[in-house]
Amino acid sequence: MPPYSYSDCVHCGKTIAKKEDAIINANGAIFCCWGCETVYSILKKEHFSLINKPHAGSSEYDILDNESFLRDYSVLQDGRQGMRFFVEGVQCTSCLWIIDQIPHWIPEVETVHLNMSQNTLFVSLKSPGFFGKVVSTLAALGYKTYPIRNTGEARHFQKKENHRHLMRLGVAGACAGSIMLYSFALYSGLTGPMAQVFQYINLAFFLPVLFYCARPFYINLWRSFRAWRPSIDLPIVLAVAIGFVLSLLHLIQGRQDFYFDSLSVLIFLLLASRYLLSRTQQKFLNSSYLLSFFEAQICRRWNEGRHAYEKVSASHLNTGDKILVNEGERIPADGEMINDWVNINPSVLTGESLPQKLFKGAKIYAGTKVVSGYAEILIEHTTGGSRIGRILKKVEEQIYNKTPLISLTDKAAHYFTLFILSLGMLFFLFYSVIDIAEAVRRTLALIILACPCALAFATPLTQSLSLKKASKKGYLIKNAESLEKLSRVKNVFFDKTGTLTQGQFEFLKWKSLQSGESVNFVPDTITLNAIYSIETHSQHPIARALVKQLEKVCDVKLPVCSLKEIPGKGISGTVEDNHYKLISALPDDGNDDSGIIASTVAIYRNELLVAYACLGDKLRKDAKETITALKKSGIKPHIVSGDNDSTVRNVAKKLELADDSIYAGVSPEEKSTIVNTVSNALMVGDGVNDALAMSSCSIGIAVQGSVEASLVAADIYSAKEGVSPVLDLILLSKNTLSIIKRNLVISFLYNFAGGIAALFGVISPLVAAILMPVSSLVILLSTVAGTKFTRKFNKWLPTNIR
């Protein structure tokens, strides 16, 4: 296979499927089109005058490279030493693209990672390198940067920036409302001196909107121009500038054509939509998951001087420390067991539903939980260097490397902007020969009316409403791109424990020696009382599950003689002159549709087998119906689990999954590899053991668990019980995408018709300015009507899984 087959464009990252579609320059770099090759060549040849002279010589940034400053602010991330900054003014994927080019413009920069949810930028340098040059470059691009030590400082700066955005939004809303109020009087026929006073009042109210509220549009346009990148804000700025100039001229000349009201409302709506998207992203994505996962756990560390355990924070533990972890607590670090035994729940790492017993000398891992007994541990790796810590760091690294795709509307708006400007210029040159005044009038009407404001407004609004309505249903979607990816899903991988099953180890049923009697079989009262009396003396999870079940029917605890634990097998004892032995037996696959038998206890009385106790997990009620519905919709379901092969195949059999859809006994790292081999794949899981797979998959959905920890790895978090939300969300994504496409068609038809009318002189600049927000209103109505679908989620689901 040639090296450029199925490659990615060096400039925009787009996948190139065929060799003949690739553009290869003289240096062997691969591009998807000549446009990318041209822009890339411009940048690489350093025709970017801003970066050639980025004001790096300014002394105000020298302090960043001061030795004492570096000592305070230098951080280690992904094995690289660097500095973290809060970047003020990050708005969209264009900002991400521009900042990602810094290593190309400044060779001393090794890597840059921008976290758009927190507006934090990590920069690492080659030696020698200067952080001052990076910051001066960002400043020249219009980004204010502040060095930070931790995420707490980032949240402080982010809060201040959000406050500024709200101030702009509030001023725009107040001014637009006031302008509309005075304009209503003018449209109603007010004339004379009072009308002129109202016109000047409108001008006064519009000036804050023009010079303060609309400032983000000017800054974004300036950055795009300096980076040789087309901007959707260009027609917005042109429309505002032209509308203001014409309104001012008409006011001076005493004419009645003014656009203050329509322009102020347009700016207010655009600001509101962008702010809503920004806050949604900030709310649902937070990378402080290590702290939330271990919950700043308080541990007991051995103090040699006092010969006692003392309480310390998990963050203060060191390699070589001895710690004590009691029942119900989570292990904070990797290490070696130094006491005799402990029962742990390892599902956070393996997905294994059956508790595991560890003995002295065994390795024990952070994140697992003590379910009975206690653990004395000699620490080998602290939280950050533990196995779970390394997995979470990989998750974070993969999230930073996920560059958002340029949306369909973003591309369309860029091309549409260039097309309209080119058309307007050509028309002006052609018609100015005939009538230059009319050429100016018609060209201005074209630019104002055919501005892709509706395109800029439609997609963010649709996405915002979908995200908001989904969150009310218990679905937290951290970015709008997830909806687009979800609509293309062809394969769904389900974790078993806690996802398809309830994730709780419990008693399922009694089983008789005669298979025909097993349905409603229950041992006699004497046997039940004996089992209850014996198992109350054991701390094993199986014993606890049996005791919990028998407490409902046994009201007496009988004395037990000759009590004896059988290591690795079970327990025995004598009750009322009868010797009972309860030992592990091989589980079967069960015949019901709810229970997943993970462990079977054989019950002997006087060496005669009298019954079996079956324990394990249970399938969720909606699991089978969801799998069936996915198959009918053309989506292939899979099961991928760290549990043993027999248990996983038992689940697959009940769900009627094919053998090639079953993956058992796999580690978190292997899960990630499996889902990466399948295109358009969705990973559904509930544990941190699924985090690596969910973050490396096309898209991930987390069910239950910690919202904060889940949304770092997964794209979507479902707070609803069961797995039916998978169908729910796929339907939502398809509906959202169809609304966006419909809005695109409406917008293009609207602008095409209006553009033709403007060029033929049917529409004046005044009418164009009035009609411009009308297109946004039409898109608003289309979007609101379309997203009503989310209020009727359950009507689209199969009746038996609503």
Task: Report on this structure.
This protein has 802 residues and is of the alpha+beta class. The strands form seven sheets. Strands 19-31-30-29-20-27-28 form a seven-stranded mixed β-sheet, with helices on both faces. The protein has a six-stranded antiparallel β-sheet with strand order 11-10-12-18-13-16, with no helix packed on it. It has a six-stranded antiparallel β-sheet with strand order 21-26-25-24-23-22, with helices on both faces. It starts with 6 loop residues before the first strand and ends in a 16-residue tail after the last helix. Mean pLDDT is 76; it is low at 1-6, 45-57, 284-293, 395-406 and 793-802.
Q: What is the CA-based Rg, rounded?
A: 33 Å
End-to-end Cα distance, whole Å, is: 49 Å
Mean pLDDT: 76
Structural class: alpha+beta
Task: Give the strand order, joined by hyphens, for the main sheet.
Answer: 19-31-30-29-20-27-28
DSSP, total strands: 31
Low-confidence stretches: 1-6, 45-57, 284-293, 395-406, 793-802
Secondary structure tally, helices: 28
The largest β sheet comes out as: 7 strands, mixed
The best one-word shape is elongated
The percent range for strand residues is: 15-25%
Helix content: 40-55%
